[in-house]
Specification:
Elements (H helix, E strand, L loop, with lengths): L7 H17 L2 H19 L3 H4 L2 H32 L3 H7 L5 H29 L6 H14 L1 H13 L2 H18 L11 H7 L3 H14 L7 H27 L2
Helix pairs in contact: 1-6, 2-4, 2-6, 4-6, 4-7, 4-8, 4-9, 4-11, 7-11, 8-9, 8-12, 11-12
Length: 255
């Protein structure tokens, strides 16, 4: 009897296509992640002339809201998406296949990156048309790469939530995590407006570290020396939590 071996790359592509089509069948989920950061820019940044007409401040505002878009897409795609998948009868079957979790996980990361980039497009267009945000093409390319790298800890955090909780519990947990982390990280208000105690505390958050790194790449304003160590430290912690949650879920459901 002959057997056919399918390459991991092809398996990843099949999972990616399936997950993408599954997501776009709910248009409001896609539109929500695309429009919220752009509307925030239109309503809260563009009307403020002192920010919108200052190239550096406007670019910082775009960086913060762009990171929020990617963070939101990551937490909802992996947190709520994984939790919902776990409730489907098809999920245990997929996890029992000899291909292993690698292609499916890689496809989930790719799908999240696609929608994260889609969420950036309306924001960048509004900033280009209605503000004085200025960035060179090389810095823009480096910024997009940086924002995808900075999204990794939030991808891992979303996976930890998704493999730990059912969908009904994952949704409020993701919402509770999203907005406090975004505010404390200076994604809505620049850290210069924080009181001293909040500014010091925010330096220890993954959102502030990611925001400072991204602002440095886009504008050249130096990031604090703690930014990369903090970001890498949270990434390692969330990776450990995601692995623990995955193995715990597997031990409960597949013994």
């Amino acid at each position: 009897m002959s057997t056919t071996t399918v390459s991991p790359l092809r398996l990843t592509w099949l999972h990616l296509r399936y997950q993408f089509l599954e997501t776009v069948r709910i248009p409001i989920a896609v539109l929500g992640s695309m429009l919220f950061p752009a509307l925030s820019m239109a309503f809260f940044v563009v009307p403020q002339e002192q920010v919108a007409r200052n190239p550096v401040w406007a670019t910082m505002a775009v960086a913060g809201l762009g990171l929020f878009a990617v963070m939101s897409a990551s937490l909802f795609t992996y947190g709520l998406g994984v939790a919902e998948d776990r409730q489907l009868p098809f999920d245990p079957y997929l996890r029992s296949l000899p291909a292993g979790p690698g292609p499916r996980m890689a496809a989930r990361i790719g799908n999240g990156s696609i929608f994260a980039l889609l969420g950036l497009m309306p924001l960048i267009i509004i900033a280009w048309l209605l503000t004085d945000a200025t960035v060179t093409a090389p810095r823009l390319a480096a910024g997009v790469a940086t924002i995808l790298v900075a999204s990794v800890p939030f991808v891992l955090l979303g996976m930890a939530v998704g493999y730990s909780l059912p969908a009904k519990a994952a949704l409020p947990v993701v919402q509770v995590l999203l907005f406090p982390l975004a505010f404390a990280g200076g994604l809505f208000l620049p850290p210069t407006m924080f009181p001293a105690w909040l500014d010091a505390a925010s330096l220890a958050t993954p959102t502030r570290a990611a925001r400072d790194v991204l602002v440095d790449v886009l504008t050249g304003v130096g990031a604090p020396g703690s930014a990369w160590p903090v970001l890498l430290g949270w990434t390692a912690l969330f990776a450990a939590l995601a692995v623990w949650a995955y193995r715990r879920d597997e031990g409960r459901r597949f013994r």
